[in-house]
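Case study.
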Amino acid sequence: MSAIQHLPFEQPVTDLDRQIEQLEQSPTAEALREELDQLRRSRDALLARLYTGLTPWDVVRVARHPGRPQTADYVRLMCRDFRELHGDRHFGDDPAILCGFARIGPHKVMLIGHRKGTTTAEKIACHFGCAHPEGYRKALLKMRLAEKFGLPIVTLIDTPGAYPGLKAEERGQAEAIALNLREMSRLRVPVVSCVIGEGGSGGALGIGVGDRVAMLSNAWYSVISPEGCAAILWKEANDRTNAQAAASLSLTAGDNLRHGLIDAVIEEPVGGAHRHPEETAARLQHWLVEQLSDLKRHPPQTLVRLRYDKYRRIGAFGTG
Amino acid sequence: MTTDVTTEKNLARTWADVPEIAARHRRAIPEGLWIQCPSCAASLFRRATENNLWVCPECDHHFRLSAAQRVRQLVDPGSFEEIDEAITPADPLTFTDLKPYQQRLEAARRATGRRDAIISGVGFVKGRRAVLAVMDFTFLGGSMGSVVGEKITRAVELAEAKNLPLIIVSASGGARMMESGYSLMQMAKTAAALARFDDAGGLYISVLTDPTTGGVTASFAMLGDVILAEKNALIGFAGPRVIAQTIRQALPAGFQRAEFLRDTGFVDRVVHRRDLRSEIGSIIDYAGR
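After joint prediction, the assembly is written out as follows.
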């Protein structure tokens, strides 16, 4: 059994991965280095080919790969001296959103990101990355803290959507997200965001109104999940309709960039972020540092105006 | 209150009161001399129900209104000037589900006589001048795509420029799937416009009507300085069916209704439709400039 979980479209590399793993673990691995390198090169070439032909539905699967790095992984891999800050000071502490002071390269920032969890207990506590209103309120509270002390804000988006439950409604899910959208638009510090996995609708945008927004190349970002869309417009969600919905929704990083809905795509290494967490984190960090350094040039009022103009322009309509 | 009722009756006389809307008006409510109340099943005389602002005289059920009907009910007769009428939907993603988006738009246009799910303009409400934006649930479920987002934003900007109160009447299933990311970003755009209006000290009255859900609730609809909701209107983020699936149990009675939102602290006042005009007038007197 291979340690890597293979997605359906990755089946062609399963055998190669197994051979490589066996060789790596064999006591004679050193002697077999040439053979190993040869195998790795063939595997990478095959992966590169498979990943260039991904359908949008395949991309959604990569974005949800169980081994895909999450916010907590990026904190570990690209931040120093992370100090988690809990709680919304009103209701509680939603673990589905992680907040804290962090250092990224030369920058001190407020880092905010969705948390999906890795162990079963963690996943359940985090509702698989679906935040409750107190999560969005915690995020806003910490963003205001950052604003007060002039710290830029970095948000990492990775959620299937805001939690659709009884308690979430009772506690004002819609109001919490709405308020974040309004307040983020006028924060007087730089806001830089990246969709690292799933960008599910309002639950994603609720921490995603930024001066610069990027997506990792295998992330998705859309108004609704493919399954949700298929269930409504195709009347049923199955593998076929989900794939059709994913294609129609233009949810890939490339699509979002082409339509001017995001500012950049950060290319993942061959085979996706789950095969190369360190390299992906390095690339993400590089992009974040670049944006933060650039945005520091602007006085607060210019930042707010530029951010407003950026969102003000989005829309496709006729005028006659 | 007696004078209010008289005013409303005068208001409801004919479509000729608001000719530019009358020309495009189509009914959101089934045709026929007699209609049945969907709530109490009473047989109602159409004309009498219309004169009662489309509220069932038997059980107080508030029928859903088209945007044109809503505008006519809200503004002083003849005082409404529509703006941004020429803004029409595009199909930036060439979206297709079981039918192409273009076909759905065309069908909605034919059925409603509207170009998209919103009417905006300037009018008087009980003598107070205000910018109005009214959503139309009869047009693709009142969904917000680029046109709704743009017209809301322009209405906010106009209210700011003219120093007028802003009234948005929401009725929507949420963001429009067929414009995907564009629809999603309208949430940020409208909220950002409201941040500026807020900075400028403008008064925004949000009126939530049946139903207001999804991305509309999670953006401009929940950002009113004062939030009113019509009696028994369904208001929420996720739809009741999705929630029932998530929690795998039946939802409590009254869940996500206007009164529930008032009781949980998210709506300032629940109003009967016949009082909506006077409520708005009063709030403008307190908070408007």
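Observations recorded in class. Strands of chain B lie at 34-36, 43-45, 81-83, 88-89, 118-125, 128-135, 166-172, 204-212, 226-230, 269-271. Chain B touches chain A through 62 residues (CB under 8 Å). We will return to this complex in the next lecture.
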